[in-house]
Design the sequence.
């Protein structure tokens, strides 16, 4: 039997992960099978137990199960523990389940390798303080940035994240605030990790946050530019990107963890982009 992998989510029908991992496997001559599993919203655990009992060796986990996967895992990577979420599971030799989070490293890879944006000494603004935001903070703090501000509709949640990540003692200025606190500020990179794009909304951001050298990045991806991306273009950002590259890069990190082989992401990303345009 081929090694079995899967992505768990709800909904899951439109997940690109099976396609991405099947391409990675072909490219690196790895013999494996990767499927999509629709788990019941209230019972991720049962689905995951059945999958691993039947010979599954690794899995990705997407919305809304990243917290369930954190609880499900027997052992966690430190970055998954701090992210408070697991997007990658791996079965160990003794049957124990290891949980990791590759979302943040996926974002940093996309920024630096695909978009050619150096994070060194940059001022970074992260919008949102939910699960998606929390998942990318540690890799950003480890990527050489100078400052990180977390802004959120509910500023108390952003302040809580500052406290969680303060323990890393990176020496990087880490602050938080509400939208109004952004008045008269400027950033090299703004990352939208709110779920506002899902409802076609945009946080009420002041003008002037972006410069002609800034990059605006939406963790969401969709065929059409998100409201945040349209706003950033109109505000004169040098570069605007969605989260498709991050999706491919987090998948490559998971693939590497499972197979110890690093797939080439560029051809897969280009292919997905061409499908988006079709
Ligand atoms: P996710 O896992 O996608 O991060 P989440 O944990 O529910 O989802 O977090 C959603 C984030 O988007 C939060 O930061 C939320 O702000 P609050 O903490 O104030 O709720 C933010 N958010 C959702 N809808 C928004 C909107 N319309 N405008 C601004 N922020 C929004």
Sequence:
């Amino acid at each position: 039997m081929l090694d079995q992998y899967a992505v768990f989510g709800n909904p899951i029908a439109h997940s690109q992960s099976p396609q991405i991992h099947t391409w990675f496997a072909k490219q690196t001559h790895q013999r494996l099978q990767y499927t999509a599993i629709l788990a019941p919203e209230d019972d991720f655990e049962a689905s995951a137990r059945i999958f691993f009992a039947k010979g599954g060796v690794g899995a990705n986990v997407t919305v809304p199960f990243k917290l369930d996967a954190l609880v499900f895992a027997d052992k966690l990577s430190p970055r998954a523990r701090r992210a408070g979420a697991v997007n990658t599971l791996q079965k160990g030799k003794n049957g124990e389940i290891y949980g990791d989070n590759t979302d943040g490293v996926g974002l940093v890879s996309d920024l630096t390798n695909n978009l050619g944006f150096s994070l060194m000494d940059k001022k970074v603004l992260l919008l949102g303080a939910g699960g998606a935001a929390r998942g990318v903070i540690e890799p950003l703090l480890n990527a050489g940035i100078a400052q990180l501000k977390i802004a959120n509709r509910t500023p108390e949640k952003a302040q809580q994240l500052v406290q969680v990540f303060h323990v890393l003692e990176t020496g990087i200025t880490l602050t938080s605030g509400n939208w109004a606190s952004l008045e008269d500020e400027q950033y090299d990179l703004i990352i939208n990790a709110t779920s506002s794009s899902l409802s076609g909304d945009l946080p009420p951001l002041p003008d002037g946050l972006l410069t002609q050298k800034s990059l605006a990045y939406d963790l969401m991806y969709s065929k059409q530019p998100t409201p945040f991306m349209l706003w950033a273009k109109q505000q004169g950002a040098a570069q605007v990107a969605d989260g498709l590259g991050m999706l491919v890069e987090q998948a490559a990190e998971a693939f590497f963890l499972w197979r110890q082989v690093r797939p080439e992401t560029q051809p897969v990303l280009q292919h997905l982009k061409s499908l988006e345009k079709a």
Remarks:
- The radius of gyration is 19 Å.
- The first helix runs from residue 17 to 28.
- The chain has a mean pLDDT of 96.
- The chain is about 40% helix and 25% strand.
